[in-house]
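Discussion board: Methods & Data

I've been asked by a reviewer to show the raw model output for two of the constructs in my manuscript, not just the figures. I'm not sure how much to include, so I'm pasting the format here to get opinions. Each protein appears as its amino acid sequence followed by a line of discrete structure tokens. Is this the kind of thing reviewers expect to see in a supplement, or should I convert it first? Here is construct A:
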Amino acid sequence: MDDRQPFDGLKVIDFTRVVSGPYAAAQLAMLGADVIKIESPDGGDEARQMSPNAELAARNMAPMYMACAVNKRSVALDLKNPAARDAAERLILAADVVMENFRPGVIDRLGLGYAAMSARKPDLVWCSISGFGQTGPRAGSAAYDARLQAMSGLMSITGQPESGPVRAGYAVVDAATGMAAAFATAAALVQRARTGRGQHIDVPMLDAALSHMAPSVAEWSVAGVTPGLSGNQGTSGRPTANLFRCRDGFVMMAANNERQYQALTAAIDAPALVEDPRFQDWESRKANTGTLRALIEAAFMEHDGAALEATLDAAGVPASRVRDIPATLADPQIAHRGLMTAFDTASGGIGQPYALVGAPFSFAWGGPAITRAPPTLGQDTETVLAEAGLDQAAIKAAMS
């Protein structure tokens, strides 16, 4: 029985940096692709230094970088060096996929762009990630996640009406773009298997953000309603779909239907929330939201978040205390799913044990796995170039 992973034997050249592109390439790497990360010898991917932990940043092994570098090999090449460009060209022409997130036109000026490479290798799948796409009035404009959160409208619907918009607490547009790029690349590979033809994929961060916001966008494009800041209010608009204080923190609840509302009142022993005419149906509850919230929160304040979460869950009311990341990782469900892969002190060049998040899905067989620690800068340069057929003189010239 063939239990190989989907991308086993696939070679990917990864020119990407920071988050969106590296995250995309990591998805392919966890499914078996040999992902070769091309970095500048002068510090490499800038994400290697993006950390408040000065020691890890000094080691060029910041957690941001490590999270998106699993299963990859690192090759350090200065693409301004003609010998290094020749080596990169050889790697590209031996690959199945190239991923890059240079500004549009940059890699073309190096002579390594899609047009030049696909002319020599027509079945090459090339994925270009950028802020705004390869064409259009903003094509050359710089983009980072925070700018795109503001520009896409995401921040206009995130935050409290009283205090104003906030950005999401993680690089949500980068992640959305990376997953879109991975999906598009997988689709292009299926297309290639059927047609024998390669493909140039154009993945703009702005497009990815709007795609993930499709229901909110439709509120305007279909109904003519401009969504605004809704705080922690659930999209259902139900007053019981919101954030509530408890004795030691906060609980996010999503009681959206009558059965859940009735279960909530029973779970917190508050029959008045059923009997009081102000709370007889959703219209009256919405009209008396402030009073209803105060009564629910008073009941919640008698309980710790963990106990309240367990009580509501047992009653069939969707709710969770607001957890920090350590508390989330301590949940037995995470261990059961095997989502985290642990590394010992000998792995990854940071001198301490650590764990990294894997793929967000599993297969019955041949599924995603983390099998290789994030590489130190250039650790695989000689090996990869030798595999590509360069002799020692050529390798030395490429690395100079």
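Construct B, same format:
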Amino acid sequence: MHPKVSLIWLNYNSSKFIELALKSLKSLFELNYSNYEVIVVDNCSTDGSFEIIKSFLEKAKSDVRVKLIRTDRNLGYTGGNNVGFRARDKDSEYVVLVNNDFIMHPDSLEVVEHMHGEDSVGAAQGITLNPRGALESFGIILDEMLAGHGLSSGTSPQSIKRPFTVTYVLGACAFYRVRAAREAWGGRDRLFFDWAFGYFDDVVLCLQLWNAGWKCRAYPIITGRHFQSRSFGSTPKNPFKIYLLVRNLLVLAGVTNSRYKHLIPLLAARAAATMLKFNFTDTLLSRYVLKAFHDARNAVAALTRAGFLIDLYRAPVIKLDLIDALQLITARRKTVIDKINERITRFYFGRTSASLAALGGTR
């Protein structure tokens, strides 16, 4: 018998992409796996999508057990998935978080079997594809500036043949061992900080897992296609999205011991400027950025008082020299990231003898 799995599928105001959302939901009932349930959490949608999804579930012909939960307000990615996590079957050993813009491959739960065979793995992902079928992610490795890296975008998914130890797994289709997640939170029944709402939540949880003695792995199983950013929208000038990205990056930097934690606010400011296209005359958006810095400072102070600190170096991290770190704040950022991604690709395919930590740098 396969270990029990709870799939948590989160919805919020998906009417603008309802056909994709229903394809995503439908894919959850077509998996080649014999022991799982589906938990649908609607984050108090107000656009009619909840009613459409409820009707779809009522008409679905499947032996898979379904739990439908509607929250009384929008709790975001973090709060909504926490609700789903607490609603899991008591026998579930694994939970899988699936975005409503992610279409699962029928064999995707093979990732669970790989995890089950490695007792030390607390979180995992497979090979996620973009809408064109090209590689989107095979796990992510952080550097000391908290920038993410992975296999080069031109890597063929079919060439990925072996597992890879990574810093964190992509939240669009993330696999977690229930026992590991609970240990990471000191026995509490949650996955994330409710207040985080969205962005960098997957990073924080995986770093917590590393700090609790667990590993994060990527397995060579295609798990599906990700039609990214449908819920928040792809527009870069969404004020709340900018606020969350900046605030949560600053909070993450504040609770880690990165050697460059005092440079990371400059990285956050650069990211905000890029999203604003350097137009700080937009009063509303600028106000959101300032609020993000203010709220992050207060959150870091509260977390530090509570003893919530993360040792970044318990996880695989690419070390940078000062010049590399500074270049990530400049116009050379993409060049630096592309070169590190290429070095990771050569490392994964055994084309270099360098250690993972030594992959930083552009020279």
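Answer (T.O., handling editor elsewhere):
This is acceptable in a supplement if you add a one-line summary per construct. For B, something like: DSSP finds eleven helices and 13 strands in the chain.
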